[in-house]
Write a structure and sequence with these properties.
5 helices; globular; 18% strand; single chain; Alpha-Beta Plaits; alpha+beta
Length: 178
């Protein structure tokens, strides 16, 4: 995991930069990214496109049929919608090539939420980090290779980790019935 191009900072307080939580799902909730190779492809493209478009990822989790991430705009950030469309087009082409399914529609839709309240932001950071546990894939989020939890636990202070992981997520409203 150490060779992944992880972002440079785990979290920031809300400030003048916009922070969004994004969720996207595959068409008919199909498990298109259902192998380690395909999960790695999706995660790597997400990290690369975020950097290319000037968005700082603060949490992410990718799965076989959906993903979530929290991203902060920077001074020179491009449109988040444009980044998502580019990400979806590129990953659809690549996974379709692997599956010999040229032209198949992969992505269905994406949903975004602009985060403007500190508690909402922290709860969603926790939600994204803990999502592999919610979906029953691992017992501890840091055990899931396609999620930012292990990175977050390595780079954040103990106080920050305790604050984020102590936030309740039961009131978080996210499209996540995958």
């Amino acid at each position: 995991m150490s060779d992944k191009p992880w972002p440079h900072a785990p979290i920031h307080l809300l400030d003048s930069n916009a922070v969004f939580m994004m969720t996207a799902g595959t068409l008919h909730k199909e498990h298109v990214f259902g192998t380690n190779e395909k999960l790695t492809l999706l995660e790597n493209r997400l990290l690369a496109f975020a950097q290319q478009y000037g968005w700082q990822l603060e949490a992410w989790a990718v799965f076989s049929n959906h993903y979530h991430f929290i991203a902060r705009s920077q001074n020179a950030s491009s449109s988040l919608g444009k980044m998502i469309r580019h990400l979806h087009a590129a990953t659809a082409r690549e996974v379709n090539k692997l599956d010999k399914a040229e032209g198949r529609q992969v992505w269905f839709n994406f949903w975004d939420t602009k985060l403007t309240f500190q508690k909402s932001y922290l709860a969603r950071l926790n939600y994204v980090h803990q999502n592999p546990v919610k979906h029953g894939l691992v017992q501890m989020a840091n055990q899931y290779d396609w999620c930012s939890a292990a990175w977050f636990e390595r780079v954040a202070s103990a106080a920050t980790i305790n604050t984020v992981y102590g936030m309740k997520t039961d009131g978080v409203s996210v499209v996540d019935d995958f």
